[in-house]
Amino acid sequence: MGYGEVMSSKQQRQQMVTRLIAHDNVSSQPHLQELLKAQGIEATQATISRDLEELGAVKIRIAGGDSIYAIAEYAPARVAPSDQLRRVMAEWVAEVTSSGNLVVVRTPPGCAHVVASALDRSGLVGLLGTVAGDDTIMCVATEEVGGTGLAEQLRSLSGVTDATGGIPRKKGAAHV
Amino acid sequence: MGYGEVMSSKQQRQQMVTRLIAHDNVSSQPHLQELLKAQGIEATQATISRDLEELGAVKIRIAGGDSIYAIAEYAPARVAPSDQLRRVMAEWVAEVTSSGNLVVVRTPPGCAHVVASALDRSGLVGLLGTVAGDDTIMCVATEEVGGTGLAEQLRSLSGVTDATGGIPRKKGAAHV
DNA sequence: TTGGTGCTTGCATAATCATTCACTTACCCG
DNA sequence: CGGGTAAGTGAATGATTATGCAAGCACCAA
């Protein structure tokens, strides 16, 4: 298996699909088909269906009862292989600090809920739960493990270098 | 608008739907229809479709390419009027206790997310955020209001009688 | 009571999405 | 070179989900 590089059309298409989903409110596969065509990419509904599956896209409901596509960030974590968690953490976690039983995880703007969702479903021992804002996650550690211990786990998962274990550098309001 | 109390069948059904979704891996609406029937609740696919919309359920993809339903903690309550909150709380909250800045809300199995979602979007003063498990919600109270004060508000909303404000009767692990 | 209003539901059907099958192409190995 | 294998795709079709419509019921007001 494995081609050379010619077959990049699929990847290009899927990348465009991802982009379209993220920016527009894509309501259906025919709709997405149109948008793709406007970008000079032609594909049938069948192909798009397969793309969406591979990308892990799902239809979510938005206000008004309509539903649009979104990239999952959610589904795969149901069975969250810790590999997935590690991948998400490595991708999006910028900083991990702790104070008392709380661990504060910083992410790029808007990404907090993605990481929090993965954490929530990871079944990580020592993690009671999370509250995610826009770019900040607050994790509640068990008393047994404590904030410091949990922070250590999280840093290990994300590959973040040890950073100021006890003294927060800056106050960030998590608008939940 | 506003019936007496006879028309509880819809709410019962939706509660069961929520529970089934949370526990089983519901793959389709006909599948859910069967599960409901096994619980003694009959409904057509059309009704179930509407229930799922109202509950904000979505189909997510799990490992293997299959997809199952899940409650969206995310879309529907976008507009959550406080009346809605009161209704949800009254329907599903079994117990409210507090300790320190935390309030623990117990619900029927599988229903925690629904309540937590409503709470998250309620803009309730004194409530910083929530972490929902299967049948348990942890609410973080502001320091100003405190766990006791928040618990009081929540009890009022849900109509639960005052219960052991400071001493948890039983340890319930919130499996998040 | 009587008529009006709004909510809920089932039926039938439309809309949407997933999958089977066949075909093409690229690549690998004798 | 063939032959074998696997990925990728479209057309057609099957499966699933959403919806228009009408009926039924509770409630309210006159």
- What value does the average pLDDT of chain A take? 70
Low-confidence stretches of chain A: 1-7, 73-81, 163-176
Structural class of chain A: alpha+beta
As laid out across the biggest beta sheet of chain A, the strand order is 3-4-6-5
| Count of discrete structural domains of chain A | 2
Reported by name, the CATH topology of the largest domain in chain A is: Gyrase A, domain 2
Gross CATH architecture of the largest domain in chain A: 2-Layer Sandwich
The whole-angstrom Rg of chain A is 19 Å
The helix count of chain A comes to 6
Backbone shape of chain A: elongated
| Strand content range of chain A | 15-25%
What summary fits the major beta sheet of chain A?
Answer: 4 strands, antiparallel
The residue fraction in helices of chain A comes out at 25-40%
Structural commentary:
The structure is a homodimer of 176-residue chains. Chain A has 176 residues and is of the alpha+beta class. The first copy, chain A, folds into two domains: 63 residues, Winged helix-like DNA-binding domain superfamily/Winged helix DNA-binding domain (Arc Repressor Mutant, subunit A); 83 residues, Gyrase A, domain 2. Chain A is built from six helices and six strands, in the order αααββαββαββα. In chain A, the strands form two sheets. Chain A has a four-stranded antiparallel sheet, with helices on one face. In chain A, strands 1-2 form a two-stranded antiparallel ribbon. In chain A, α1 crosses α3. The radius of gyration of chain A is 19 Å and the shape is elongated. The termini of chain A are far apart. Chains A and B meet through β1 and β5 of A and β1 and β5 of B. The structure holds a DNA duplex (30 and 30 nucleotides).
